[in-house]
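Translate sequence into structure tokens.
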Amino acid sequence: MVARGYRGDPSKHKIYFLAESSFGIVDALSLLCLLAVMGLASFSERLV
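Result follows.
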């Protein structure tokens, strides 16, 4: 969850939680790569 806003004006403060404008295909691809790296790290630990 990301809180964005301008200091001093509470009506301009907005909270976005996985809004369609802030989550795109690049974000999904980066999450997939992160999960792949974590899986490979876990797998390589078991080999040693």
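Note: Residues 23-48 form one domain.
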